[in-house]
């Protein structure tokens, strides 16, 4: 009855969107989505999960006023690295999960009848809960307690299928009773009608007696289904909201039984960037060429074929694809044979996969690409592109060959397939995708001209190194579920830098990796961050998409670096080899990694240490205070918070490294001290003048030296800049800006440190200083603080002007010098330093006048193009160059230049053209948006544009995905007023299920509040001191 519904809603604190669900669903979701209760213990691994029902017991007995307690649960849970995100795709509550608000009370005047019914239900729930309470609880493992639900002896309640019958399953995750063994896929794409048909034959084994087979399928029309004998048709039920289909049986399928399900289906090729999608490009004659390719990670294999689309359901695959002559097809495995069909079409059949793999790694392509190849060990490596770009594939082939050899040797496990294809796809959303044996890339991430600059090549090498590392970390050993995505991405990111530092030291990756660690800290210092290994719910598609963020990738990689530098030489590698060997072909959770390390002799205390980093979000601030030889270290969470309300008592085991004035720059100077408690004392000799902590910034923490400590370090740098390594200098600059943002040091102290930079010539510290200053400048610019901006320019010229003017504009070999030069000149020209703009304009005119034959050095292209784009006529000539160039790296820089214009009409044009696709591919829209956002003229226009076109944008880029995260961040992160805060809040909360729940929205609101606070605190200081 209605009142029952009403009461239940109050009980579970959800909104009226649930009212439309059948009652059984509400009960069910109540069990489904209640946050688990955790017992607090000091050691995260001793925590015991209570059955979910015990929480219901508490609530069922009438404590409906739990908001405060929930806050407690939430903050204490954060200690364990849990954040309660009480969401689902089908019924989102309108309040943000990060800001728990009192639920709307729908039934404010309970009638007597309702109370009676309510009490009855409470008693029912309570007694059920009592019964469940005495069922054995399960011990908390890092993977959570997934099996707890299946032991509930309650008649489950089910949603309705599309045809009205009950769907025999009621969870987003698939049942574990059936395991796929092999898929036999036949696909017939039609590139004229942009449709395809398919047949999928799935061989399965039954793991537990069951009456149902449940699997994923999305946007596929199943035309026929047979079970076992192909003449026996079965009925397929579909529950669309969860993208599941099911076949029910009257009698149990028995344990150990082998089954075959055959499904025929039809579908459209996707017009977004996932599933089996179509793409096109214009060839050199201007004719439109079409192709079809796949992108399945994280959850889109189900859009191409019905499957058990979870990473732990590994199986083998045999793929057949039909094509017209004139096209080629590619898939994970080498081609086995080609058959001519009666229709004149050709059918390519690929070998069955030699390995068990997850569905998200399956891939196939139909296109007219050409390739170059090389044999490396026993693997044929090929790079594919559209025919006109074949010349741009050599660098990728060289790099891939070198790295394949490196990984084969380093990991002691050979790449298991006979071929490895790297394919540049003309319109592709991600940077690249590591499909086993068939890695797909954006053209800009794979193709590079021979004469391109080392800086352009560095980008390609990075992406190739990352995707190749995935062939082991991700493909061979896969995380069990997306909550541990860092086991894939943190490792791939870590190896990307490490392998390149070893094999291509000239590419200067150690500076890049340092910048990445700083970037990860920026995101992880906000309340909206999440632990690297997420133990709360990651189930809905949005939650899964959101895992692909800087914390998972970059903090993950940073933690691995910290671990590696903490262990004795060689031990990290040994542990990693053990991990790969233990789990090859299967799936893992984070604990498996620590166990593998223990097996090679790594102390248990190291695993304990790492748990404090992977299970909690955020990172520590270490404060140093010194009395003679006694150095006291104190830790606290480094949490940027505008309201001071949400401080946690998180503790980390911090491997604190330090050097002192007697021995400060060589690696052998490094000493280490593990800070496990809130405070500890370290003894040094009285004669030591100063300490610098976090040697080379390999630890994921920030250090505050106190007024005196900073002063002695600054003195030391002014006396001899080389007393610290460039990384340590960059680390000091980063830390002091961060402390100023936290309100621990004044901006005056920041400027005190920066005074030493007039003697600085190294890339890492200078790029860090300039990037910090330019973000301050951009904030002031958006507030139109004209007088301050003018003074800040004077300050920048005073400190860096000479260095800017002394830069050479010719060819430069060193990547590190190129990086520095481009950063210096981009800042100089964008702030209008005459010397710079004159040189840039002259180079641009030479380039156009020589019909683009007089090359601009690659690292200077951006500054030259962007400077040129500020003049109307040159902007138009750049537009022409954009359409005609075939060099992808150049094209991207021209696009950024075009988007940097300060002419409002051109800005509006470029935004709408980017959304349209065609002249500017839609894949570039996030880049266009972020470039426009940086400038003054466009930052309000682009925000309006995003609001107005939100629905079209999320049609192209899924809610929660990385491009959407980037769009939200770039359009809102420079706001610093109450009006904008309210506007951003208002807009996103109006979106409801179209995006209001995203973590990036919370992050954006926090950032605006912090900007506001920063302005309040620092504007007066800046007015005095600048
Ligand atoms: Zn990756």
TrEMBL record:
Domain Aminopeptidase N-like N-terminal: 180-361
Positions with a binding annotation for Zn(2+): 466, 470, 489
GO MF term list: metalloaminopeptidase activity; peptide binding; zinc ion binding
Subcellular location, record wording: Endomembrane system
GO BP field: peptide catabolic process; proteolysis; regulation of blood pressure
Domain Peptidase M1 membrane alanine aminopeptidase: from-to ranges: 395-613
Record membrane topology: Single-pass type II membrane protein
UniProt GO cellular component terms: cytoplasm; endomembrane system; extracellular space; plasma membrane
Protein name: Leucyl/cystinyl aminopeptidase
Organism name: Oncorhynchus kisutch (Coho salmon)
Species classification: Eukaryota, Metazoa, Chordata, Craniata, Vertebrata
Gene that specifies this protein: LOC109895999
């Amino acid at each position: 009855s209605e009142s029952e519904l009403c009461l239940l809603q109050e009980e579970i604190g959800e909104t009226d969107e649930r009212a439309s669900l059948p009652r059984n669903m509400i009960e069910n979701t109540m069990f489904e989505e209640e946050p688990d209760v955790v017992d607090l213990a000091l050691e995260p691994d001793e925590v015991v999960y209570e059955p979910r029902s015990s929480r219901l017991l508490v609530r069922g007995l009438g404590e409906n006023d739990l908001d405060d307690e929930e806050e407690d649960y939430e903050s204490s849970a954060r200690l364990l690295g849990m954040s309660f995100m009480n969401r689902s795709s089908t019924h989102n509550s309108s309040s943000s999960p990060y800001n728990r608000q009192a639920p709307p009370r729908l039934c404010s005047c309970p009638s007597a009848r309702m109370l009676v019914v309510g009490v009855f239900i409470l008693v029912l729930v309570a007694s059920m809960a009592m019964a469940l309470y005495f069922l054995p609880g399960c011990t908390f493992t890092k993977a959570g307690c997934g099996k707890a639900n299946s032991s509930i002896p309650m008649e489950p309640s089910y949603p309705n299928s599309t045809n009205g019958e009950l769907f025999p399953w009621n969870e987003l995750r698939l049942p574990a009773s059936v395991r796929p063994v092999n898929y036999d896929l036949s696909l017939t794409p039609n590139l004229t009608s942009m449709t395809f048909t398919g047949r999928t034959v799935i061989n399965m084994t039954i793991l537990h007696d069951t009456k149902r087979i449940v699997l994923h399928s999305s946007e596929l029309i199943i035309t026929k289904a047979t079970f076992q004998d192909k003449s026996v048709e079965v009925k397929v039920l579909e529950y669309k909201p969860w993208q599941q289909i099911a076949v029910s049986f009257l009698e149990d399928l028995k344990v150990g039984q082998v089954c075959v399900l055959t499904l025929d289906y039809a579908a459209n090729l996707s017009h977004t960037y996932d599933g089996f999608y179509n793409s096109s490009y214009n060839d050199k004659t201007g004719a439109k060429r079409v192709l079809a390719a796949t992108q399945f990670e994280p959850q889109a294999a189900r859009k191409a074929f019905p499957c058990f689309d979870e990473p732990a359901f590994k199986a083998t695959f045999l793929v057949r694809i039909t094509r017209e002559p004139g096209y080629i097809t590619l898939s994970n495995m080498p081609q086995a044979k080609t058959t001519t069909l009666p229709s004149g079409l050709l059918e390519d059949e690929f070998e069955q996969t030699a390995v068990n793999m997850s569905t998200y790694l399956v891939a196939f392509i139909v296109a007219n690409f050409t390739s170059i190849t090389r044999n490396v060990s026993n693997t044929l490596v090929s790079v594919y592109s559209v025919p006109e770009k074949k010349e741009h594939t050599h660098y990728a082939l060289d790099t891939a060959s070198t790295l394949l050899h490196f990984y084969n040797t380093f990991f002691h496990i050979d790449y298991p397939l006979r071929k490895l294809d790297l394919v540049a796809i003309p319109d592709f959303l991600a940077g690249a995708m590591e499909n086993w044996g068939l890695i797909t890339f954006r053209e800009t991430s794979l193709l590079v001209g021979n004469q391109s600059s080392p800086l352009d090549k560095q980008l390609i090498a990075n992406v190739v190194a990352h995707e190749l590392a995935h062939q082991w970390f991700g493909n061979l050993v896969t995380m069990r579920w997306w909550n541990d995505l860092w086991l894939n991405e943190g490792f791939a990111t870590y190896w990307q830098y490490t392998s390149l530092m070893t094999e291509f030291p000239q590419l200067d990756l150690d500076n890049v990796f340092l910048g990445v660690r700083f970037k990860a800290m920026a995101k992880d210092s906000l309340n909206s961050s999440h632990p690297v290994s997420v133990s709360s719910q990651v189930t809905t598609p949005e939650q899964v998409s959101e895992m692909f963020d800087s914390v998972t990738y970059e903090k993950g990689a940073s933690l691995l670096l910290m671990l590696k530098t903490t262990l004795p030489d060689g031990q990290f590698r040994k542990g990693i080899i053990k991990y790969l060997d233990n789990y090859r072909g299967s799936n893992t959770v984070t604990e498996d990694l620590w166990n593998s390390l223990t097996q090679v002799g790594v102390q248990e205390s190291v695993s304990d240490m790492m748990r404090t980093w992977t299970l909690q979000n955020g990172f520590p601030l270490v404060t140093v205070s010194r009395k003679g030889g006694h150095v006291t270290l104190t830790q606290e969470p480094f949490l940027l918070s505008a309201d001071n309300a949400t401080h946690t008592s998180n503790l980390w085991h911090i491997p604190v490294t330090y050097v002192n004035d007697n021995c400060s720059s060589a690696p052998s100077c490094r000493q280490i001290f593990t800070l496990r408690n809130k405070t500890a004392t370290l003894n040094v000799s009285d004669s030591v003048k100063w300490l610098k902590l976090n040697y080379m910034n390999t630890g994921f923490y920030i250090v505050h030296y106190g007024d005196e400590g900073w002063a002695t370090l600054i003195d030391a740098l002014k006396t001899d800049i080389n007393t610290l390594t460039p990384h340590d200098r960059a680390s000091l600059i980063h830390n002091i800006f961060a402390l100023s943002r936290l309100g621990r040091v004044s901006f005056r102290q920041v400027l005190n440190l920066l005074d030493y930079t007039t003697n600085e010539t190294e890339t890492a510290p200078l790029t860090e200083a300039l990037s910090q200053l330019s973000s301050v400048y951009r904030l002031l610019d958006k507030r139109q603080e004209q007088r301050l901006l003018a003074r800040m320019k004077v300050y920048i010229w005073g400190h860096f002007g000479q260095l800017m003017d002394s830069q050479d504009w010719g060819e430069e070999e060193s990547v590190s010098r190129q990086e520095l030069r481009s950063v210096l000149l981009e800042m100089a020209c964008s702030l209008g330093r005459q010397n710079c703009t004159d040189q840039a304009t002259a180079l641009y005119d030479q380039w156009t006048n020589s019909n683009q034959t007089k090359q601009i050095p690659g690292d200077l292209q951006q500054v030259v193009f962007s400077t040129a784009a500020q003049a109307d006529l040159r902007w138009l000539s750049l537009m022409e160059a954009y359409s005609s160039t075939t060099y992808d790296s150049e094209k991207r820089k021209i696009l950024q230049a075009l988007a940097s214009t300060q002419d409002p009409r051109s800005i509006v044009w470029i935004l709408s053209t980017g959304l349209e696709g065609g002249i500017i591919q839609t894949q570039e829209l996030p880049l266009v948006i972020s470039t426009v956002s940086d400038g003054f003229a466009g930052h309000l226009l682009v925000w309006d544009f995003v609001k107005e076109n939100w629905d079209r944008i999320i049609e192209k880029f899924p809610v929660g995905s990385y491009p959407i995260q980037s769009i939200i961040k770039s359009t809102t992160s420079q706001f610093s007023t109450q009006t904008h805060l309210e506007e951003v809040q208002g807009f996103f909360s109006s979106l409801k299920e179209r995006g209001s729940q995203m973590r990036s929205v919370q992050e954006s609101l926090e950032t605006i509040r912090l900007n506001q606070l920063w302005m309040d605190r620092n504007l007066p200081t800046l007015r005095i001191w600048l």
